[in-house]
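Progress against Task 2.4 (sequence-to-structure conversion) is shown through the following example record, which the project officer requested during the mid-term review.
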Amino acid sequence: MSKAIFVTDGDAIAVKAVLAATKVLHLGCIILSGGNPSVCTYEDLHKAILHSKHDTTVVMFDDAGTTSEGPGEQLMKRLVEEGQIQVLGALAVSSANRSGDWTRLMCPLTVTETLCPTGSIKKESKSLMTTEYTGIQSTS
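Structure tokens generated for the chain above:
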């Protein structure tokens, strides 16, 4: 069974970062479903994942900021429902937020690998509050 890690956003900035990370981690990367928003067909994406040369492949998605279920979410949902791909996890990034707003997460992890389980992270990857969580200190 093919293994995948879902990543959303899929805009140009996110694609560049994910391509660099997957190269270092020796993972496959499918950007076919990236863009802003995702415009590939389910059939093309499904085939690309199943034919990946890597044990684990990172797959990018984007909804172009739609508030309802967008094309990226529809692709993710269908891939999960079909059951032929084992989804190891999902990573939500906000790579090119024009408003500069923060995103509230259940347990955000900054680029410095510090946890902020009850706070929020700004684009600069700084925690909005200091929280100690299982021995790991998250600082502003």
